[in-house]
Amino acid sequence: MPLFINTKMNQDTIAIIGGGNLGKSIALGLLKQQYNPEQIYVTRTKVALLDDLKAQRVHTTSDNVLAVQQSKILIFALKPYRIESVLKELASHITKDHLIISVISDFSLEQLSNCLTSEIQIVRAMPNTAAAIGESLTCIASKNASAENIKKATFIFDALGETIEIDESLMDAATVLGACGIAYVLRFIRAMIQGGIEIGFDAKTATKIASQTVKGASELLLQNGNHPEEEIDKVTTPKGCTIAGLNEMEHQGFSSSLIKGIKTSIETIQKD
Predict the structure, then answer these.
(1) Which residues contact 4 (CB under 8 A, 6 or more apart)?
(2) Is 120 helix (H, G, I), strand (E, B) or coil?
(3) Which of 86, 122, 198, 220 has the lowest tally of Cβ within 10 angstroms?
(4) What kind and span of H or E run contains 65?
(5) 127 touches 179 (CB < 8 A)
(6) What is the pLDDT of residues 95-124, one digit of tens each?
(7) What domains, with CATH codes, occur in the chain?
(8) Is 37 a known ligand-binding residue?
(9) Is 10 one of the annotated binding-site residues?
(10) 79 is in an annotated binding site
(11) Does residue 172 sit in helix, strand or coil?
């Protein structure tokens, strides 16, 4: 994961237009990777909600035009219903020298391009809120972006975790699996905690055990490169408690419920 001190990337001022949960997560992730706070602008209508960033010397403002004028890289982290009106407000201030990065779900590269007055280099990215602790998985796609600007976008999101480039046609799927997926995993952990309490642990201890166990399971897959079933086989002995529990979960629809939930999420995105 790259550090930004004394690198070329540190020369580019970044404006995050929309300092909500995801926008703040991106700013916090950059700060954790030692990005110069004085080269970050974050905007929000209720600017007082950005006081924690301001205390770290980040420029906070409700003036989107000011942030755009002061920056080379513009990250749009707004709600989908607001993006068109904000781009209309800013279109005359955005030039071919800007790199546009959108982290807005359900708003395509073509839609972004149509809102601007000239051929602008655009990268669409889908991180998740784990960006705030440097553990996001970000998928990116681009339109008219040079290799240099794709590299810049990759550097930014590598500071927040890991980045992979995908075809834009898969961006809705990336939103569901990577961004909505945070909530799915947290709901699973919550259920593990509740089960832990039922079998005798206090809430704090159950939370620690469940959270670390999920972290460990993820690292087994990431570091060993195995299919999940290979790791499952290592802990399922004949007539053992693990296989008994797994089979009961499957009888109750565990895997099918999760798959149906993922499919429902993407159908909801594509319905509009």
Answers:
(1) 10, 30, 33, 34, 35, 36, 155, 159
(2) coil
(3) 198
(4) helix 64-69
(5) yes
(6) 988 999 999 988 899 999 888 876 889 999
(7) 8-166 (3.40.50.720), 175-271 (1.10.3730.10)
(8) no
(9) no
(10) yes
(11) helix
Contacts of 141 (CB under 8 A, 6+ apart): 109, 123, 124, 165, 166, 167, 168, 171
Cβ atoms 63, 85 nearer than 8 A: no
228 is in an annotated binding site: no
Question: 96: annotated binding-site residue?
Answer: no
Q: Is-contact 63 47, C-beta < 8 A? A: no
In sequence order, the 6+-apart residues with CB closer than 8 A to the CB of 26 are 16, 75, 77, 103, 127, 131, 156, 160
Q: Which pair of structure tokens corresponds to residue 89?
A: 């407000």
Is 17 annotated for ligand binding?
A: yes
- 189-200 pLDDT per residue, tens: 999 999 999 999
Give SS3 for 92. helix
Strands 136-143 and 121-126: antiparallel
What's the rounded Cα separation, in Å, for the pair 112 and 258?
32
77 in a labelled binding site: yes
Q: How many helices (H) and strands (E) does the chain have?
A: 12, 8
pLDDT bucket at 6, cuts 50 / 70 / 90: very low
pLDDT tens profile 240-260: 999 999 999 999 999 999 999
